[in-house]
Amino acid sequence: MVDSKQGQQEQATVLGVGVGDEMYRLIEELYPICRSITGNGVRETLRAVHRLLPIEVYEVASGTQVFDWTVPKEWNIREAYIETLQGERIVDFAHHNLHVLNYSTPIDRDVGLEELKGHLFSLPDHPDWIPYRTSYYNENWGFCLTDNQLRTLNDDAYHVRIDSDLSDGSLTYAEYLIPGESAEEVLISCHICHPSLCNDNLSGIALATYLARELEQRTNRYSYRFVFIPGTIGSITWLCRNQARARNIVHGLVVVCVGDDGPFSYKKSRQGDAEIDRMVLNVLSHRDQPFKEIDFYPYGYDERQYCSPGFNLAVGSLSRSSHGDFPQYHTSADDLTLVSASNLQASLDAYLEVAEGLEGNRTYVNLAPNCEPQLGKRGLYGAVGAQGEPLDTMTILWVLNLSDGSHSVLDIAERAGLAVAEVQAAARALCESGLLAEHSA
Ligand code: ZN
After folding, report:
1. Domain range holding 133?
2. How many angstroms separate the CA atoms of 153 and 320, rounded?
3. Are residues 246 and 338 in the same domain?
């Protein structure tokens, strides 16, 4: 257990090596599982996560009322195919989980071509890709196939079989809490309901898992709550069951699409200027890489629920490509080739940098506020910080000038156009020299 800021950052560097490969391996393991918003695929996924992180798994019965919604029946599927009347399989769920409309009701009969076409989904613009389609709240059956496959269907009728069941069961989700010095919580939320799609959102599951493994080795000021939930109904269910607890959430991020090679994107919380919004934008704007800043809009991922007006939590979403904004989105092309260990690693590093920024976003007071203290006699000109980084004199002057008990590290960083991490390093050096002390609110 390490409790100094210095120790924390050294740890991040050491643990960082190879963690991208481990995240990628978790994605490879989870990719073949057919997930949905309920059912055994979600449980199997959470069992795999549990090997790495002792998450608590919860089951909420079908029919449970959660705000304006009802926990749906549980869906499980064994096989699904379309075959010619001669028994030749044209489309087979065994070949790809996306081939079946997610939440399809069972069927086992011959179907005329025209009726069948009303239940088929393809992507004419990408004739080799299988789309991902769901029908959670409207009972229906269907298949998704490549447009090339669709164009081979010329028989008058086909045999269609979907061996699934939609019956009373439960919705499964998981949580993991890393207690900190404070009861105030940072929420990290990822969705676990997509079958065989890597960027959206096996990458999110992998990042949340490894972020938790890293943070649990540190002594943290904040408590960190990780939730692994089916999209929409899962966050609604979690919020409904945890209304009091949700009031402890002071910062949060929805982890999605963090494995592709798109530039970072940050969708701000509904508040728009919350500390998490400012912190993420500070981290991204000092990485010397282009990034996208997206204003909150009431669509996308589970931030929609966390940012509903009754909660209005400071929850944004840090991703690479953003919701719906990459051609492979919700198609079979969101596969193991779209994500990479190095992109996952860089995304994890960005999340850790944000967490470190939040942890160290404190307010200080200058203990020698009457004119500038003499830096030279304290060895602070051209000095080197605790982690061997050069300390910039202008940064030190900004910290001394603005540390009047009313400016946080983030305030100083924004005012001076500096990265939060640089301001934190200067503040540590000034505290060690006796010129600065943390302001007790
Ligand atoms: Zn999605």
Report:
1. 74-167
2. 38
3. yes
